[in-house]
Write a structure and sequence with these properties.
The protein is an alpha+beta fold and about 150 residues long. Helix content is about 25%, strand content about 35%. Strands 1-2-3-4-5-7-6 form a seven-stranded mixed sheet, with helices on both faces.
């Protein structure tokens, strides 16, 4: 799957169709809950908030290749989260394209995320710097990263 075979979509929560929301949630459950074996409350009530924005990539054959969401935290800081790539799309640059779309959406706003520690170099490419100590979330080492 090459770069030209992916379409990036960015929508506010209010613009999502039920099918789009279902596909986003299904990919996240497939990656985080099933593949990474992390049972956690995926349905956290934030996907349909008025200030939530979803970004995803669709392959030329219509499959969901990856997604993320951008939330607005207290004080206007944006939180990038639920960043995941489907197994068939890993190593193709989809994750980078999704993050670039999120950064384009964020503009100059301060952003924060909780990165799995193996991915800190990936997020550093977008201006994120580690802060604080490594912590376990669902048994996986994470670190908070911030872009100011």
């Amino acid at each position: 799957m090459g770069r030209d075979e992916v379409t990036i979509v960015s929508r506010a929560a209010s613009e999502l169709t039920p099918t789009e929301l279902y596909e986003l949630l299904r990919l996240r459950v497939d990656v985080f809950v099933v593949e990474q074996e992390c049972p956690y409350p995926e349905l956290d009530g934030r996907d349909l908030h008025a200030d939530t924005h979803h970004v995803w990539a669709t392959s030329s054959d219509g499959r969901l290749a990856g997604c993320l969401r951008v939330l607005t935290e207290a004080g206007g800081v944006l939180r990038v989260g639920r960043v995941c790539t489907a197994a068939f799309a890993r190593g193709t640059g989809v994750g980078g394209r999704l993050m670039q779309a999120a950064m384009d959406l964020a503009g100059d706003a301060e952003c924060v995320l909780d990165a799995q520690t193996y991915a800190t170099g990936f997020y550093a490419r977008f201006g994120f710097e580690p802060e604080g100590e490594v912590f376990l979330e669902d048994g996986i080492p994470h670190i908070t990263m911030r872009r100011r």
